[in-house]
Protein 1
Amino acid sequence: MIQNLLALNWKMNKTPAEARAWAEELRGKLTANDTELAVMAPAVALASLAAHLPPGVALGAQDVSAHESGAYTGETSAAMLVDVGAKYAVVGHSERREYHHESDADVAAKARQAQANGLVPIVCVGEGLDVREKGEQVAYTLGQLEGSLVGVGPEVVIAYEPVWAIGTGKTATADDAEELAAAIRDALIERYGSDADGIRILYGGSVKPDNIATLCARPNVNGALVGGASLKVPDVIGMNDAL
Ligand code: PEP
């Protein structure tokens, strides 16, 4: 049985002080259950969260450098993220693929670098509206997955995030999520054999307290990657309780 993961992606929101206030509010309200809760915060808020998150809540980054160290101005290395307490690093989020022109090869390099330092990469894949309208979402997403996992081992989480559903309020159906999650599972089994059985596949795209249970009820969907609804503690409690 795979443990569900509720991964919160704050995007470029919350200062370290706001992160601390959020963590303290969460501490008073969170009830333990079988779901793993993890917060993907801006790099500058990670130290504050590490000091104030409730026990058992994991920490993650929203990106990681593909390089070990050195002359890469503005980048954050995997070793730095581990040192501040991170367990996860999101790689290949559609916003980075679009606004920072990250290719599948870039994403794979970041995922390899994360794993080399003991971080678990959360590799994001998913089709845009044009691809979905042509009915080519499975082939497109599996192609992205293949390119984003070159040289990457099975200590990984996959997030299927249809781009048309991110931050738009348009949610995929549970059937849409399972169609892709099942196809991703088959591709992971082909790549990793029995090691693929324990890999978590998340759904992401306008997940909220009132739809998370339905979206994550199918056998191959093992949790969610949540943007907008991750910012307010009551929404997080609602999602954590519903999952
Ligand atoms: C995301 O940022 O990965 C995401 C899924 O955002 P939202 O939940 O706001 O659609």
Protein 2
Amino acid sequence: AHLDRIAAVDGDLNAFLHVSEDAALEVARDVDERRAAGEQLHALAGVPIAVKDVVVTKGTPTTAASKILEGWVPPYDATLVEKLRAARLPILGKTNMDEFAMGSSTENSAFGPTRNPWDRERIPGGSGGGSAAAVGAYEAPLAIGTDTGGSIRQPASVTGTVGVKPTYGSVSRYGLIAMASSLDQAGPVTRTVEDAALLHELIAGHDARDSTSLPEAVPAFGEAARRKDVKGLRVGVVEELEGDGFAPEVRARFEESLAALERAGAEIVRVSCLNFEYALGAYYLIMPSEASSNLAKFDGMRYGLRVVPEDHPTAESVMKASRGAGFGDEVKRRILLGTYALSAGYYDAYYGSAQKVRTLVQNDFAGAFEQVDVLASPTSPTVAFRLGEKTDDPLAMYMNDIATIPANLAGVPGLSLPSGLAEDGLPAGIQFLAPARADERLYRVGGALE
Ligand code: GLN
């Protein structure tokens, strides 16, 4: 049924870059046979899933939506993909995204934008717009996204879906095409909080192949989502993330969600995180710095596209021509920004200062979590904007991430779920943040609101 749905709507939506019809059907049939034979399988066995194209899949093309990786077929699976296969979830295909996960609208894909299923003239968020649109359009019941500065939560918010960025280090980054290694984290995109909890449980866990992987066992998130009990839970509203920059109806839906939590027995308090104001600026130095280093490996030699200038085919000219032709404008912009911020003479002023701000943001979280159990804010300042509306204004595009970025700088987990319909009848989202390793609180509060 999901493959039929993809065939019917994806020509318009462009949520998928690759559909693995035969492989998905084979897994689905195998699950049927095993169930018929009485075999005990994972709760999600047979439930189809879409995977963001920044996650490597053995034998299936993986491009990160970049021309520079076009035609590359990975020889191995990401750890999280191994887990999906072991639990027998049919992988429907790979989803569209901003090139190398850089963007907030999926318009930076080298293979055309994804459209928002609620209004096809609007963006589905980014960078994981393909995963969110696929779930929102009923092409897939589950999807995997990655979140470096909001790319799971913001697309979820503008497509009326649920998205979770787990605690940094709790889901293995092995096999994720790295954007900014100290910020990247993979997580679930789903239609319900409980689905997200079950998928999160499946993909989390220690992995010796990721040196930042946390050693702890994974708690039972599904249980937390089903409990629907927030009595006595202290919810802190971040004063810096609910002001004038947020659209009136987005704020109204946010306030209504808080009121619902209050009726269910939660205590709502205002908290201040003074340094969140500087988080966006720090992110747009740290992220490009790490990306400029991570993307150095795309040199026209090892993977994908290779452009050989006929007149002067040296190693250097091949690298230059391949990178020039293979990377899109936003990727080049960030490589330049990062290279500049890391260069001798500028390092302390830019990268060094940004790292200090990162510590201040972490201190703000630590202070806030002494007063409350979870923090809350609208996920995104507005509902989905129109395709093309912000493509000429990188700063306006970057402002979309104002509420999602602090969590990545501090490594704390975040969950976005729908708060209702706002401007133009389009979905808005509410985000909850919890201390590192306390992801189950997100499911407790999210489950109660659903
Ligand atoms: N929109 C943000 C950016 O462009 C976040 C991207 C992400 O989380 N991958 O950097």
Protein 3
Amino acid sequence: MAKDKVVLAYSGGLDTSVCLKWLQDEKNLDVIAVVGDVGQEHDGLEQIKQKALDLGVLDCQVVDMRQTFVDDYLSKALYANAMYENKYPLVSALSRPAISKHLVDAAHKYGAKYIAHGCTGKGNDQVRFEASIMMLDPSIEIIAPVREWDLKTRPEEIDWAKAHGVPVPATKDNPYSIDDNLWGRAIECGVLEDPWCEPPSDIYTMTVDPADAPDEPEYVEIKFSKGIPYSLNDKQMSFLGIILELNKIAGSHGFGRIDMIENRLVGVKSRECYEVPGALALIEAHKALEDLCLEREVLHYKLGIEQSWANAVYNGLWFSPLKEALDAFLASTQQCLSGTVKVKFFKGSCTVVGRKSSYSLYDYALATYDADDAFDHGAAKGFIDLHTLSAKTWASNRRQEGASADVFSAEKAQGPLKKGKYETVPEIAEGDDCSDIVEEAEQAMYGAAVKA
Ligand code: ARG
């Protein structure tokens, strides 16, 4: 009897290679491995494919997804200036739905009943894969081997691999978990799990240490048409080409490193390091053009939409109706977003130093303090009268009712602040015995001193 088929998201690394073998041996499935090229560093796609074939897959598809990734995913992220928690440009969160789309396509092509991925049960990526797959085809069943098997540590996984004929990389084990694509690189685990530990310089590969960056600044002019970049320093290039080039330029000036504590969807805070030189430079430039061209109310409203968009995508809802509706709003705002932005890279920074556009809403005559000033200064008085009318009405009511001026002071209105014992920090000199202070504090907090 023919075996059931499973499409596996395959990278060629140890985890997904063990997944591959495990699906064959433990689940008795025929495996179709899909390798998605989203611009990550790899040791050669042909080699990765050969490795899967050697392990006896039914087929191994290597898909160059870079163009779709740029056109259908990164362009929307740029429209949204997408940054989760105002810091992280969603590197991995953007690639997961793109890869999922190809996994579902492959499942349909090969008549596979299952799709499998190599994510752990603790991260966001499992959610993104599974939510995307479910929304694209709810009839496909998902297998997450890493969540199911009881290989708890890396050495256990290596032992299993050796016992089952899965080649184990001879290179020294990388202590970090890395995920990368055109939009940047995410680095987790190892010493980074201590939030106090400064990231060792060897975690970075796309950016130089800002201290080692050139002593001369570099200026770059980026031209946008309808929100998408199309020219770098007056040289016309594809969006994909611009990302690759800006990764190099910005990275060579040490720009684009992020070290943050991030709130995962599954409720865990994790320490994450990223390097996103090109993505961050493009987002900064894109925002600067929006500052110039978007009408104030649209710009302000868009800030909230951007945050909702980033949250939806971070949380795996790329194919959701909410995300689609937000995309429609964003696309509308980009219709007249064309122009040029000048940025300056220097020692780890990227600063926008100039912007121009034929859609600019910046009006010199309105803005200037010189003789050319066309702003109606006389109109300001009436404007302020009406702008403040509501609050003035409130204020005069309070005054008539005899409320003292104190009513306007938050502290007085709420009564005096309770003065607690530890309101003021006790002065402690080096070498002081603090045990009585600690005991008292514990007494106050827990009702008893905590025994060591
Ligand atoms: N924390 C980031 C996110 O959730 C990065 C995840 C990177 N994945 C990995 N396998 N290292 O998007």
Protein 4
Amino acid sequence: PTIYAITPTYSRPVQKAELTRLANTLRQVAQLHWILVEDAAARSELVSRLLARAGLPSTHLHVPTPRRYKRPGLPRATEQRNAGLAWLRQRHRHGHGRAQPGVLFFADDDNTYSLELFQEMRTTRKVSVWPVGLVGGRRYERPVVENGKVVSWYTGWRADRPFAIDMAGFAVSLQVILSNPKAVFKRRGSQPGMQESDFLKQITTVEELEPKASNCTKVLVWHTRTEKVNLANEPKYRLDTVNIEV
Ligand code: UGA
Ligand code: MN
């Protein structure tokens, strides 16, 4: 199956660095299609050039987050992930239930992904799950597995979540995406940290989840976050004689 990685991304000083690192990972994965969705009113030159040179099959989308949703404490990238989902459904609309084999994964632009992670998710039949490192106020969060089934969640944060899992902790088969055409990320009523649960509730149940990474005992992806860059010494006048893309 082809792996479809949906990556929301937005303009900021570290964007090109993040996307360069992510491209260097994804390029090494066979049969991967990168769906990069800019949080912007138009496709940027920076991202267009980067994708053109990334050396992997890709699709470049864009949709701006409405201003009222750009606030601390509100979920991020809702519209961008939905644009990726809509593109996938549109592209496979002639499948009529006989979808080409595919697996969807939400790959934020700042996380760290091992190559083994992609081997694991490729065998997803419906929805698969695995641990995520450096998240939830702990070294890791993970689905707790007994007799091959997810029975609970090891988490330090909002243990009341129906699926106590980060966006980087699951993959969904294309078939499931196509047979649940209304499953999307919702703004209304979605509290911080509930996006994953709200989405997964629409397409699966905890009993149905397929544990990966040795029954969820290995960390193959890390929820790394990049430090905000210090630009305190950027010149206000006497700018550099060339304008360099960073
Ligand atoms: C956590 C989760 O890991 C994310 O999957 C979830 O979207 C996010 O919380 C949330 O609060 O909604 P966190 O590291 O806090 O992640 O979020 P970011 O990495 O800053 O953003 C997630 C993705 O959305 C990134 O790919 C980022 O580039 C993108 N993003 C962020 C936008 O497209 N627009 C924005 O305004 C902010
Ligand atoms: Mn992040």
